[in-house]
Amino acid sequence: MPDKRPYIITIDGPGGSGKGSLAVQVARKLNFHLLDSGAIYRLAALNAMQNGIDLKQESKVTASLEKLDIRFEIGDELSIPYLNDVDVSEQIRLESSGEAASVIARYAGVRKHLLGLQQGFFQDPGLVADGRDMGTVVFQQAKFKFFLLASVEIRALRRYKQLIGMGLSANIDRLRSDISARDERDKNRAESPLIPAVDAIIIDSSLLDLEQVVDLVMSHINEVNELVE
Ligand code: DC
Asked: How does DSSP assign 16-33, residue by residue?
C-alpha cells in the first residue's frame, strides 16, 4: 500500500543561504503548508522590544512571550506576519530584527515556549519548515531533511540585492560582518545550535540559482516517493 500520510520537509541553514525562497517554492509545488520559523523568532524579539525589554535580560524576554499575539495571513507572494494585529512584514525583515531574533533564540525558555507553536503548523496535507533546528529538534520525524549552505560572500551579496530591491539601504561590508557574527552565535549556542541533522542532505547553493536548488530538492523528493510507492 502506498504511504499517503502527510509528511514534513525540513530546510535548515544559515541566514541568506536561500532556504526561505526554497521553502516557499517547494511548498507551492506540493501544495503544502509553510513554516518560516525565523519569522516567529523575529516576531518574538520585536514583541519584547516593543515592550521596552532589554534583550539581554533572559527572564524578562521569556516572560514577555506569555502575551505574544502573532498570526500569519496568506499574501500574494509570501505570508504576512501580524504582531498584535499590526502587519509587521517590513519591520521583521530588517537586519536589526534578524540580529535581535538571534540574540533571544539562545534562551532555553524562549525555544521551549516557541516549540509547540511551531509544531502546530504541521497539518494535512503536509508541511515545509525552514529554520535552524527544524530537522534536529522541532520536527525530528521529518521524512525529508535538507541543509542549505552558501559562502558568506554569496550570502552577503544576496542579502544586499534583496534589501536594495525592497528600496532599503544596505552596506555590503557591514552585511558580511553581520552575517558572520550571526553564524557564530547561531552555531555556538548551547540550545539547538545550527548544525545539520545526521540524516540531512547537505546542499551547497553558492554556485546554484534558486531554480536549480528547487529542481535538486524536488527530484530527490519525487524519487524517494516513487521508490516507496
Ligand atoms: O532565518 P532567519 O534569518 O529569519 O532567523 C533569524 C534568527 O532567528 C536566526 O539568526 C536565529 C533564530 N532562529 C533560530 O534560532 N531557530 C530557528 N528555527 C529559526 C531562527
From this structure: TSSHHHHHHHHHHHHT-E
In this predicted structure, what is the pLDDT of residue 1? 47
DSSP string, 32-80: -EEEEHHHHHHHHHHHHHHTT--TT-HHHHHHHGGG--EEEEE-SSSEE
CA 123 to ligand 1 center in whole angstroms: 22
One-letter amino acid at 211 equals E
Q: What is the reported pLDDT for 31?
A: 93
Domains of the chain, CATH where assigned: 8-208 (3.40.50.300)
Listing DSSP states for 159-191 in one string gives HHHHHHHTT----HHHHHHHHHHHHHHHHH-SS
Mean pLDDT by 10 residues, the chain (229 residues): 79 92 94 95 96 96 95 80 95 89 95 96 96 96 96 93 88 94 90 93 94 96 84
pTM confidence score: 0.92
Distance CA(3)–CA(15), nearest Å, equals 34
Q: Which among 22, 132, 183, 188 is the best mutation to test ligand 1's pocket, defined by most ligand atoms within 8 Å of the CB?
A: 132
CB within 6 Å of ligand 1 — which residues?
A: 15, 37-38, 41-42, 98, 101-102, 105, 131-133, 182, 186
| d(CA 6, ligand 1 centre) in Å | 25
